[in-house]
């Protein structure tokens, strides 16, 4: 891995770790570099990964939330790039995607946020480049460190936030018990 800005040693694991990399490939070349860095970091820590693509940065938290409810990943890496344009859409996408990831993290998910929020393409290219700032690897390292902490502190818990009272699945309109007439 190229020189990086984080100083923690690489996370280590006694048992395998499985990570979902969710990427918004709006700028394909930048996304590909972020993915390359993230994959290399996960492999270096002995982990495995899957990659899922979503239309844009706003969909990253939703996809991670769905994966958490319906799959078995230990951690998540959110990758994408938002470049400032001429409208306020930039602030909405940056703030809401980050807020969504933060809320998921506060519920106990181990997420590395690798959404680049930059003023121009040149800034994005340097940050995504595995031979430069390597922010994809940084996001993967963050997720892996959170997985290691979760395992150290006892593994998965009920978390905070809204959870169903039971594992029972009901469709709208279906009565839980059949009423007696």
How are the elements arranged and paired?
Blueprint: E1 18-23, H1 28-44, E2 48-53, H2 60-70, E3 75-83, H3 89-106, E4 111-118, H4 121-128, H5 135-152
Parallel strand pairs: 1-2, 1-3, 3-4
Structure description:
- The protein has 181 residues and is an alpha/beta fold.
- It contains 5 helices and 4 strands, in the order E-H-E-H-E-H-E-H-H.
- The protein has helices at 28-44, 60-70, 89-106, 121-128, 135-152, and strands at residues 18-23, 48-53, 75-83, 111-118.
- It has a 4-stranded parallel β-sheet, sandwiched between helices.
- Helix 3 (89-106) links the parallel strand 3 (75-83) and strand 4.
- Helix 1 (28-44) runs parallel beside helix 4 (121-128) and helix 1 (28-44) packs parallel to helix 5.
- The radius of gyration is 18 Å and the shape is globular.
